[in-house]
Task: structure prediction
Amino acid sequence: MQAAGRRTSNATELASTVPGFQSREWPPWLLPALIALFGLALRLYRFDHESYWGDEVFAFALVKSSWAGMHAAMVKDVVHPPLHYYLLHEWFRWFGFGTLQGRPLSAVFGTLAIPALYGLANLLFDRETALVSALLLAVSQLSIQYSQEARAYAQLLLLTIAASYFFLRALKEQRSLFWWLFIASAVLVEYTHYFGLLTLISLAAFGVLYRRTYPIPRSWWVGGGLIVAAFLAAWLASGPLNEALDAPKMANERGKA
Result:
């Protein structure tokens, strides 16, 4: 029995030296990448099956204009920050204008959100939880739906995940790089959708409540807050704020007429 055990051990050692017999460890990025590719396939599957609805038609008409025309229309519309429309405008410039070309941009953002969520869940929990989270987002009906619409929602999802990831890395590691990446992501979030401000407010509230556990330098808070506020103020001051304030007056005048 001992001789047989020694022969087995020797055979195993010999096999480990032969190419092809060595035990192989898969790279850690492989499974997240496969899940993301699976999610991309789901987002591209029959992405043009549903007809285009009013908001998508509005987006196509808007981005077909010049930059000045886009800005004027967004100011009149009031409710939409500009970033998604700027990106869609450039997307059409590169890939051609048409309803078929309009939706894949959202599919790209929706797919990138999958590995982004993997990174966030891995930061907060562990690899197994991160893989499950990525897979759930890949097959999420709601995420697939918004990844098949030429709207800003898939972009907002990606950017809010990225902002949360960089914020938590900055809190945990006290590294200025991640803090300023968070600030850059925060600016992109607020220029994508105003509801994204709710995420930023929640992150800031968490940082304030747990400031003793995760002490962020006051200069980071002040500098980052001023940058985020300045970008938002610049956009609102370019016309949307005045338009929003004048809208009730114009409605009352129309009602009296």
In short: Residues 1-9 have pLDDT under 50 and may be disordered. The chain is about 75% helix and 0% strand. The first helix runs from residue 2 to 16.
